[in-house]
Amino acid sequence: MIIILTIRLAWLWLGLASAPSHPRVRSPGGWPGALLAIAIAANTGCVLRPFNSSGSGRLVVVTTFVPITNFTQAVAGDRAEVTQLLPDNVGPHDYQARPEDAGKLARADVLVKNGLGLEDFLADLVENAGRPDLKIIDSSQGVPIGLGTPAAAEPGASPQPSPQHQNDQHRGQPNPHIYLDPKRAILQVATIRDGLIAADPSGKALYQANAAAYIAQLRQLDRQITAQLRPFAGKTFVTYHDFAGYFAQSYQLKTQFLVDIPEQNPAPGDIQRVIRAVRQSDLKTLLSEPQAATGQFAALAKDLNIQVSRFDSLETGGPEASQPAYYLGVMAANVNHLVKAFSASASQIKGTLSPWPICGVPTPRSPLRSPGRSPVLPLVGRCAEGQAG
Ligand SMILES: [Zn+2]
């Protein structure tokens, strides 16, 4: 025990003495923090493991955003301390790193990310954290990213991706939203399991058991979704930003979107593309999402005299979103909304209450009706007609 403690103290000393390992951001607490860690270790007499944890003896794992947190928490259980990098209700498209975030990485053993360029901010953050030794699990490794477009080859189908997609932040990268397809999510969970085992081999049995249990739940979710959506094979749905391609492919659906990323303003071509999709597919519902600038989407739905429902891309969430069951619940709700959207007829939706108010939107500011721009469509559909709001 004394030998191990001596090695640990020497390791801490070398880490502190090595200036380049903390070039820009001080580790949390700096010297006092390190001394506190030494004091805790000495006073508790705990069995020190080769982890960067501050005395708990548990593997310290940082995840990037909601689904990655869900998957990692499911595999790690109580064996690891899992912390999400992104704050509540901030998604990876609009995340701005804060100094304390580098601090989270500075004390982590493992970082788990979605990959495929969705977390481009990590390169600078890891460098700032001074942790070249940080183990990084890229959960997209081995996940099929081919978005074959058999549906798009059909007559009347809209091409994808849109021309604007070439200019978005996914440029040069495949679409990163693999986690929204439960079949691909299963592969991500398996990769996270293997990465945690590599970082903490003595936890192998637990990680394997936890992953198997969660994968069984994901398979059940996949079967449920398959059964629910089978009657709608070939149908199109429209989301706010470009996240549903893998999900649609997995369940023989087609998808369109208004913008590439949530913060983007739609170009006139985007609006026309959605209008074409709605008319060709006789859609009665657009599917918005929590972080979307819903005003423009709502105004478009109002002009088309259709409803707005919700498909949560799981990029943001509150404190309740950290647990493994969150992914399962949100995906089940998404599919229920989708089934209602596909099932809706004009008469059925008349007078129903949308989960997203589509009236009361400050439509004069909408690009559809802003001064100097002609409305794309005649204005139809009013709150007074009893749609929602
Ligand atoms: Zn996205």
Notes on the protein architecture:
The chain has 389 residues and is of the alpha/beta class. It has two domains: 57-143 and 172-232, Rossmann fold (3-Layer(aba) Sandwich); 233-385, Rossmann fold (3-Layer(aba) Sandwich), CATH 3.40.50.1980. Helix content is 40%, strand content 10%. The chain has twelve helices and eight strands. The chain has helices at 2-17, 30-44, 66-76, 99-106, 122-128, 182-199, 204-229, 245-250, 268-281, 294-304, 324-343, 346-349, and strands at 59-63, 80-84, 110-113, 135-138, 236-241, 254-259, 285-288, 307-310. The strands form three sheets. A four-stranded parallel sheet has the order 2-1-3-4, with helices on one face. Strand 1 (59-63), helix 3 and strand 2 form a beta-alpha-beta unit. The longest helix has 26 residues, at 204-229. The N and C termini lie far apart (67 Å). The chain binds zinc ion (ZN). Residues 93, 177, 241, 243, 313, 315 line the site of zinc ion.
> How much helix, percentage-wise, in residues?
40-55%
Mean pLDDT, all residues: 75
Number of domains: 2
Q: Quick one: overall form?
A: globular
User: CATH topology of the largest domain, anyone?
Assistant: Rossmann fold
Euclidean distance between termini CA atoms? 67 Å
CATH class of the largest domain: Alpha Beta
The H-level CATH homologous superfamily of the largest domain, spelled out, is Nitrogenase molybdenum iron protein domain
- Beta strands, count: 8
Rg (CA only): 24 Å
What strand order characterises the main sheet?
Answer: 2-1-3-4
Largest sheet: 4 strands, parallel
| Class inferred from helices and paired strands | alpha/beta
Order of helices and strands: HHEHEHEHEHHEHEHEHEHH
